[in-house]
Automatic annotation (TrEMBL):
InterPro entries: Kinase-like_dom_sf, Prot_kinase_dom, Ser/Thr_kinase_AS, WAK-like
Name this polypeptide is given: Protein kinase domain-containing protein
Organism classification: Eukaryota, Viridiplantae, Streptophyta, Embryophyta, Tracheophyta
Region (Disordered): 585-605
Domain of life: Eukaryota
Cellular compartments per GO CC: plasma membrane
Keywords, comma-separated and alphabetical: ATP-binding, Kinase, Membrane, Nucleotide-binding, Serine/threonine-protein kinase, Signal, Transferase, Transmembrane, Transmembrane helix
Pfam families: Pkinase (PF00069)
Amino acid sequence: MNDAFRVSCEETIDGSKPFISSINLTLVDVKFSEGRVIINNSITYSNCNNHQDDRKKGVSVNLTNTPFYFSDIFNRFGSVGCGNFATIYHNQTDDPIGGCLQPSCNSNANLSTNDMCITSIPPRLDTFAASLTKKYRSYDGNRSCGSAFVFDMDSLDNDGLLTVPHTKGHVATSLQWGKPLPAPCKLKDGKKTFCNSEGHYCWSCLSRELLCVCSDGEYSSAYSVDVCEGCSTSIGTIFALLCIWRLFKALERRNDIKLKQKYFKRNGGLLLQQQLSSNEGNVEKIKLFASKELEKATDYYNENRILGRGGQGIVYKGMLTDGSIVAIKRSKLVEKKVLEEMKLEQFINEVIILSQINHRNVVKLLGCCLETNVPLLVYEFIPNGTLSDLIHKPNEEFPLTWEMRLRISTEIANALFYLHSAASVPIYHRDIKSSNILLDDKYRAKVSDFGISRSVAIEQTHVTTRVHGTLGYLDPEYFRSNQYTEKSDVYSFGVVLVELLTGQKPISSSQSVEQRGSLVTFFLHSMKANSLFDILDPQVMNEGPREEVTAVSWLAKRCLNINRNKRPTMKQVAMELERIRTSDETNVLQEQSDDEEDYEINDDVTDPWGISSCSTMVIIDNI
């Protein structure tokens, strides 16, 4: 309530002790419901070993100008000794306010608390003095030793005895801060725990007075509200606020549940559940995550958990409750419009299909969350970043060797071959690029990000969509016709091959004047001019066998054929790369009969500035 109640920790010869700072006395206990504290109080008067002149009075601590006073309810004035009259005064100059006569001692027995007199003290005593006056003859030095003090009655043991206080130099004493009211004690509703006087409900009914734990008038400036009235009012207010808060939280939870149900239904949750129940053998292959689980897994989508940002959304690193590490893709809000334009059944089917993909070079989809504004996809976590970073941010301590480039190329090709031909339903990735190729702990390639992928019927040869992809990787025929085929993925893979060969980005403003435009244009011109080895990455030139490098370059040229019908399939690409890796004597594949027009560069398609002037509906991602 104010600084008078402040407790500090201080060092003593007996170790650290709590002290009430305002009166510098050791705090023993607090009895809040009784409005009192118990302190270790020094012996007020003692004439042992001539420590006190009989003609002088011992004076207690002065509690004036503090909220405390010596409790007349819990304390008594006591004196230990033989043949003395113990007197208590309000101060050194006032008349006595009480006293008691010690028993006469007629033996040589040691002094004990049986040789003690006790009397009550007046109410609201804030200071006092004490003295002993000899009345009877004592037999020895011990018998002449006596003391006087105010002590707490709780200090008496079961036999009504008190440990001789002058042997310790202090005694337990109760200080009250409660306000005794003059009215007699009245029980409220027959309960013994409350009292009622003049409309005030107080903590305790004690003795002949009503103890109310509240402020006194002279301390009202420190805390003006009557604690007795204020406590009952505050309890009622707190109870009302608690009820309002619980009602608010209940409504909040109800609204949150309704909103999650709305999102779940809108995002196709009911349809997904039907698909799972009708396909019981695959139920365990996809999990529907709760939004709260993913919030906790990502530390509520903390910025520090972001693994990457892309055209489709943000990817966070998360830890599930079972301790497994995952990557959680949170779509951009704008993607909600795209999702709404898609057929709901198609989206759900794709989620199920992707969850069933099982290939060592494809990132595994573990499940999804449909309780949020836009769906969240949960993938296995791949620790070593992207192929793009490995190519364009070289690490001297871990260089990208030719053997690694060839192996990674083969792994990507095998993954795309699986998606196109070996999966239960053919899948077109539609966004193959080096930043969508992840590298695991052993730097094995993992194709990722199926945000715009499409599954097709086995008899289908293409899907017709508005152009959507990444600048520098787009198939020119797809750009012109809006028809995406498996050969469109082949073209994008060809761009990745050229990146691995040259170490350059598909589109880069840092290239020289003759290289500006697209990397594909520059590569094909170099092939045509027979200057391939002038543009290769130095690491490739130093480590790669000339026959292997040439073979991969011609394979990349075939993948980039402007006529999609003359591009190889991913099966053929994968087999050719495997052959290059395992063959002792590589036969360079050159199609001498190729029509040069097939490789003629159309600047309206491959140049980025040509794209911006086209009227076709296009969604382009940055590299």
